[in-house]
TrEMBL record:
This is Nucleotidyltransferase. It comes from the Bacteria. Keywords: Antiviral defense. It comes from Hymenobacter aerilatus. GO terms for molecular function: nucleotidyltransferase activity. GO terms for biological process: defense response to virus.
Length: 266
């Protein structure tokens, strides 16, 4: 009977998790409250709302120890019906705000956001506005061309919650496992596209191990630059080595190749 690393992958997925009420989580929450309050005081009626979204809200963000680029997205929804400004104008306002209130931190533009890099994590301030038609609404954020694009982050969050529940709560951990590889490999995928790809996978009957291996098989390199294609091909090759050594009951070599894929605990 082949050996299993299901339990180890479960432990690693938890290691790559900012657990509730941990020091890192509490620091993020404190900073979120601080930034949100300052934004509301600064802009007043120019704002509709301030809220966090993205991978932090979906429990798929990696701890800073495993991804120095981890960031928390803050949506700054402006009263666009009254203001009617361009994305660049809103970003200029947010940059001035960040320079004023966080002068001791690293503050800079990074399309389509303004980044405030605090000691423990980065915060991306994303200008946004919403248009409502009867019972529906459309949310807009800037794109890389400095124009408005529609988005629906709540749909992705809802989809992930649904599939994670449906497949026995293994989907979010598998996303974190693959994000740990992705970061180590130089990020051949954006965080968003990696999550989107994994959400659409059928994990029926899978556990952490079989689901992780299956997800690797399903990753596509379509449209990727050559360096990214090579990273993805290497991932699949190393995964094959892990499976082969598990099948031959050689755990030391299986773990050797697994840790070429995933960073060990810190």
């Amino acid at each position: 009977m082949a050996l299993s690393i299901n339990g180890l992958l479960r432990e690693l997925a938890y290691e790559y998790y900012i657990s509730y009420d941990s020091q890192e989580d509490n620091s993020i929450k404190t900073s979120l409250t601080n930034i949100s309050g300052k934004l509301r005081n600064e802009f007043g009626t120019k704002l509709i709302s301030v809220s966090d979204f993205g991978s932090y809200k979906r429990d798929t963000i990696l701890p800073r120890a495993y991804d120095s680029g981890s960031d928390v997205d803050i949506m700054v929804k402006f009263n666009h019906a009254t203001l009617a400004k361009t994305p660049d104008t809103y970003r200029t306002w947010l940059l001035a705000f960040a320079d004023k209130h966080f002068s001791r931190s690293s503050v800079y533009r990074d399309f389509p956001t303004v980044v405030v890099e605090l000691g423990h994590i980065k915060f991306d301030l994303v200008p946004a506005y919403e248009v409502s038609y009867w019972s529906t609404s459309t949310l807009y954020i800037p794109d890389s061309r400095n124009e408005w694009q529609s988005t629906d982050p709540s749909a992705l969050t809802a989809d992930l919650t649904r599939v994670n529940t449906h497949y026995g709560s293994i989907v979010k951990p598998i996303i974190r496992l693959l994000k740990a590889w992705n970061t180590r490999a130089g990020k051949p995928y954006s965080s968003y596209e990696l999550e989107k790809a994994i959400i659409n996978i059928n994990f029926s009957g899978d556990n952490y191990q079989t689901g992780f291996f299956y997800a690797i098989n399903q990753l596509s390199d379509y449209g990727k630059p050559q360096w990214a294609k090579e990273k993805i091909a290497t991932l699949k090759k190393y995964k094959g080595y892990v499976e082969a050594y598990l099948y031959n009951n050689d755990m030391p070599k299986a773990l050797l190749w697994l840790y070429y894929i995933l960073p060990p605990r810190k």
